[in-house]
Design a protein that fits this description.
Elements: E1 7-11, H1 16-27, E2 31-36, H2 41-44, E3 54-58, H3 64-75, E4 83-86, H4 108-132, E5 138-142, H5 158-178, E6 184-189, H6 206-218, E7 228-230
Parallel strand pairs: 1-2, 1-4, 2-3, 4-5, 5-6, 6-7
Bound molecules: NADP nicotinamide-adenine-dinucleotide phosphate.
NADP nicotinamide-adenine-dinucleotide phosphate (NAP) binds next to helix 1.
């Protein structure tokens, strides 16, 4: 991006990476519309941020009515959005069971797809008119290296990996469709983060990951034209 965005919408701002990204963008003076799924307690507790730049918006990315209401709420505050960041996500496989124990009937596969894959797509579709009025024209899906087929090392975590792989494909399709209108659509793997999802053993604090990821979101595209990258800007194989 050549200049800093004025306005940005982000999903999954309750906690973890989404919350840390909000802090980072506010520090850059960007007006953040933060999608809150279930609790605004942590975001309301942020210190040293300019709250006049923050607007909280209720949002469940798997519920069409919730997305419509979020668009209407944002619309009341601004005529345009420069950047959209889809950070909301679920990893519903605490036990990481092997194939033999995979439960097709408990709904975790469908739920993972609904939030991780269809969620970002629904959000992009709904917010596109506002994004088309903006000047940033950047959409970022926080996916995962778990969605890479080319670099796949896992032999389980089916729901998460399939849903992130689908989110990667959504990114590619969206980029193909929206590039002629001047948009960049990126899929970013944010690193292994010590959030509720990543657990306490992970490499990066949410703040460390957010600094790197925000730098990529606000910066120029990688010179090699890669759109599926990790938090350091390295190209990932699809
Ligand atoms: N943590 C890692 O190591 C890691 C690695 C690779 C990729 N990622 C990706 O990075 C993103 C952020 O992960 P994280 O580590 O920050 O996870 P996290 O701590 O579990 O936070 C996930 C966020 O998504 C929200 N969310 C869940 N379901 C939602 C829904 N239906 N609609 C809207 N928001 C919803 C959660 O809200 P609630 O609090 O209400 O549940 C929470 O705010 C995810 O897309 C994740 O897949 C994370």
């Amino acid at each position: 991006m050549i200049r800093l965005p004025r306005t940005l919408f982000l999903t999954g701002a309750d906690r973890g990476l989404g919350l840390a990204l909000v802090e980072e963008f506010l520090r850059h003076g960007v007006h953040v519309f933060a999608g809150i799924h279930s609790s605004s307690a942590e975001i309301r507790g942020l210190t040293n941020v300019d709250y006049s730049l923050l607007t909280l918006i209720d949002l469940d990315v798997s519920v069409p009515d919730s997305i419509r209401a979020a668009v209407a709420a944002v619309d009341r505050h601004t005529d345009s959005l420069d950047v959209l960041v889809n950070s909301a996500g679920v990893h519903l496989e605490d036990k990481r069971v092997p194939l033999e124990e995979l439960d097709f009937d408990d709904g975790h596969l469908e739920r993972s797809m609904a939030v991780n894959a269809f969620g970002p797509l629904r959000v992009v579709q709904a917010f596109l008119p506002l994004l088309e009025e903006g000047t940033g024209r950047r959409i970022v899906n926080i996916t995962s290296e778990a969605g890479s087929i080319g670099a796949c090392w896992r032999d389980r975590e089916f729901a998460y990996s399939l849903s992130k792989c689908a989110a990667n494909m959504a990114t590619r399709l969206l980029n193909n469709y929206l590039e002629p209108k001047g948009f960049d659509v990126l899929a970013i793997h944010p690193g292994w983060i010590r959030s509720e999802m990543g657990g306490p053993e992970a490499d990066l604090s949410p703040a460390e990951a957010a600094t790197e990821v925000a730098g990529l979101i606000l910066g120029p595209l990688p010179e090699n034209g890669a759109i599926y990258i990790d938090h350091r800007g390295n190209n990932l194989p699809w």
